[in-house]
């Protein structure tokens, strides 16, 4: 019996460890968006938690918009046939302009999602993450986050509940989405701890307030409407609530009153009695909400932070040298002046490099639950403004590891592999007009079948798509460790900028894309050799 219990405990412990091996472009990007939120727009949008388009005193908040948008996108789910769910379908105007999706909060949210999405992160993942970051940053619990949601290619069927509908239709709508009555009460309370009802959207519920501190006339669901807390429940239970969906003069619109009371107040009382019960219930309900996806979508494991993570690792070929830049993140550790962090790398000829890294700062994550400490690969000096390390192209670079206070960190012996077969050359430049010359340095002995520029095309409010442009193979001798392949490309003048990755295909159909994203401009200095 005892052994059984121990075996079970061990199995549980192991199954919670879901770290992956770096590099994995999609997981690296999702992990960074989730745990290094200070590098993206979502955290900035909810710091402070009453942030709303930089405008003060609106009565609105991005945090509330994001949580509501995540629910409305998910609420089309039909558990019976697996259609709908959190798939970014709300970005289609046809769906967004339905009567069940009133207000401009969805479009406001999409501006943030477009800025968060990239080739590895869908609009749907960005939306799920926006809700998670809003809740975690504004006083809520840590929410397990998975990635790999797929963006719908067309609108979903309608299915978002509306306040004037009766309780049976709400119970029915949540059942279709996969939530029973108690879970419905929980999810509505967890959502309605943020935000409120806006006059312009629901003039039947909320009057114009003519309040300079509440310019959009929002009547909040609770007295702390930019903070995640159980006041939505305590105020409801103590009959002091001003929740407009409980106290509306026209009872038809009092959906929260009908929903909260639908189990005789048992669930709401449990929330009012215990902030921690409210918090933990919301963590699991919101996780289920964002993980409600169309049939066939395969979500990743719950993302866990890598204890040691290289970030922004970039190689550029610069006048017969390779310049390596990057950072390494030490997870959940405070600043420590006495800590020593070294980068050790191996090259293709069996040599090694070994240098001391420079502390650059600490950042909070998941609200203020965790702190990460960051180190750059080289000191930023006048001579080395981008903190780059020179690498000899003859030997190249194969793999990195780190030594933290004398302890080797190499992913259990695997090392942190670095790809040096293709990279941007700093000789890339603008030829003239909107024509940019993109120079790619290709390791000569890597012999790619194809090299191509992967142009990112952004069309609001969608995730970027990729258009490949083949780079012609250069003629002439290839006796140097690296050969420059060049392509002239027109940069879209109306945007003024083209963002791209570099891709290459090798024997056996093996493809590689730089995780680094580069830019070419339609104006600015032109190539020295074409002046
Ligand atoms: C029967 C179910 C629900 C109904 C009838 C309902 C109804 C409403 C209404 C009428 C508003 C005001 C919108 C506006 O004035 O712009 C609102 C706002 C909001 N809802 Fe719900 N809701 C429901 C469920 C949920 C759920 C499950 C969540 C999230 C888990 C949620 C999150 C929010 C948030 C955060 C706001 C505030 C938006 C803001 O202030 O910008 N709602 N809801
Ligand atoms: C939606 O947002 C985008 C970008 O923020 C803006 O250009 C557009 O005008 C908005 N559309 C509506 C209908 O508000
Ligand atoms: C309450 O709202 C409903 C739905 O809009 C409407 O049919 C009804 O007439 C309203 N009742 C009152 C008393 O205004
Ligand atoms: C729930 O509690 C509120 C606040 O005390 C009360 O007004 C309401 O009548 C109760 N509803 C039910 C169904 O017990
Ligand atoms: C790296 O350099 C440090 C300082 O010069 C040295 O103590 C250490 O042994 C070196 N480590 C390796 C693995 O070369
Ligand atoms: C580049 O400029 C030319 C000439 O002004 C123009 O015809 C062409 O459409 C531009 N290309 C792009 C992609 O904007």
TrEMBL record:
This is Peroxidase. Belongs to the peroxidase family. Cytochrome c peroxidase subfamily. InterPro entries: Ccp1-like (IPR044831), Haem_peroxidase (IPR002016), Haem_peroxidase_sf (IPR010255), Peroxidase_I (IPR002207). It comes from Favolaschia claudopus. The lineage of its organism: Eukaryota, Fungi, Dikarya, Basidiomycota, Agaricomycotina. GO terms for molecular function: heme binding; metal ion binding; peroxidase activity. Keywords: Heme, Iron, Metal-binding, Oxidoreductase, Peroxidase, Signal. GO terms for biological process: cellular response to oxidative stress; hydrogen peroxide catabolic process; response to reactive oxygen species. Destroys radicals which are normally produced within the cells and which are toxic to biological systems.
